[in-house]
């Protein structure tokens, strides 16, 4: 990404902006007295029992609000139904086919209690694991809340993942129940979620039941011992289920994400710290008020959807929009139409979506009245200044602020972002600006020395924050090694960063083997372990190259086993294999067949060299390369394709 000096001095005015104080003061307080600061903030949660200790920090484990008891479904629903929020809209839901549903807080409360009662009857209790494999339909947030109510630990698996990818996660978490739908709509097609869930259930002996939400009309075979329709288990249920008094640090959910290994890791989040962090950061970054209509376009299958489609907006009693389908279905103006229709005031999306809209032209958003918008946001990858400016001009009409929020599955909520809810900063297109209160950022060189402003290095977080992950599920060793071993005592996110002369932060992409395709996180190791699982493949190396819309695109270098020759057919077959074992997001842009992969003398694949070949860059230092011929070969394969 290129840095730009073009600064947009954006100081919003008007009654909407009621900043709660001075950013510098609040930030300083959060650094000087973190425990006092967070104790004060935590007054905004409803506690069944107050905490005894704000923070127990035994690096690398932080436990917040020790001794406190609460329930997140109570925070999101019970609290509100005792006030005038009861009849306020929680979700305007719209399906891809245009069908709609309006869910008030009271309706969400009723549904959550009933779903919790139905789960209880299936034998789900506190501490049990439940996998949710659902499209963007209201049943998904309702089941998340129902699990939270019962104290069952849920794991949401993105609906575009394959049956095999679902099975891997279900098995790792040990889910007793999979909740899915008959199918889902995507660009006019129906995708068979139930069949994928069956594939996972057959592979995982831990699964006792599949609950099926009727969503698409097509037929699905029901196994009478294992499969139940949601409608059947809900029949006749209308009851209150008391929310479990959860410990502040009881696990809430596990969300699988990609790291540097071939297997996704289960990021484990807790209850109180997470609940507080997401609600506070939403307020600080977007400054909502009670009239706001918030639309975070992320799928709930990712952390952004967990924190900012489901829990934080409900905690704050906000009205949200939830949309099932693709942004370009039936046409590229669907989202602008929805903003105008629902009077969306806060719109939060990804750079990849913005770049797609840019490509189709500004005439599409120009057809709609977007004047309801008061705040914009971006997440998922670095936003290039051109996309930022396009968004600022064509969606924000140069009148509203953009919060470029940098964060991760592991951080629970926003870490670095403009904070119009505290005090609007001037903005620089492409910079996520400043850390949130409580986030102690430094930029280090490879030896752990802090770099002067202007130089790029590893971003680290030097203090625990309430939204920090509890652990990697059932893998403490990987947790310590991944985040805490390189710079002991500091959390290592794995991104490159540069602090400029004004102390603005520029997040410059991953420093490790993680690729971001259309904002979705996937690792080279995952792609490689999938593809070498195909009987025709001997070895493979994955890398990425920049893509104008998707940010990065997947490139694979493959050596075939004896007996299989490179051909368009085997290429198509390997693409199918990747989609079947991981999901559609693993679709490679290109597969190159070579006889040798470039390796170090110790046998490590040099992906850096392949990436240079795939991007047409200079290869650089090859002194550790074992066989120089392999690079020439990769280059020849690449040239041939051009
Ligand atoms: C929320 C989410 C995390 C990785 C992160 C970074 C990239 C996310 C960004 C950003 C620059 C932003 N990332 N937001 N990079 N600017 N505003 O995306 O979580 O899927 O875990 O990915 O995404 O590289 O390390 P997750």
From TrEMBL:
Domain annotation Acetyl-coenzyme A synthetase N-terminal: ranges: 23-76
Family, as annotated: Belongs to the ATP-dependent AMP-binding enzyme family.
Residue span(s) of domain AMP-dependent synthetase/ligase: 80-465
Annotated keywords: Acetylation, ATP-binding, Ligase, Membrane, Nucleotide-binding, Transmembrane, Transmembrane helix
Gene name of this polypeptide: acs
Protein's name in the database: Acetate--CoA ligase
Pfam families cross-referenced by the UniProt entry: ACAS_N, AMP-binding, AMP-binding_C
Matches recorded under NCBIfam families: Ac_CoA_lig_AcsA, PRK00174.1
Enzyme kind, highest EC tier: ligase
CDD domains tied to this protein: ACS
E.C. code: 6.2.1.1
Molecular function terms, GO-annotated: acetate-CoA ligase activity
Taxonomic classification: Bacteria, Bacillati, Chloroflexota, Dehalococcoidia, Dehalococcoidales
Transmembrane segments: 130-161
Classification via InterPro entries: Ac_CoA_lig, ACAS_N, AMP-bd_C, AMP-bd_C_sf, AMP-binding_CS, AMP-dep_synth/lig_dom, ANL_N_sf
Domain of life from the UniProt record: Bacteria
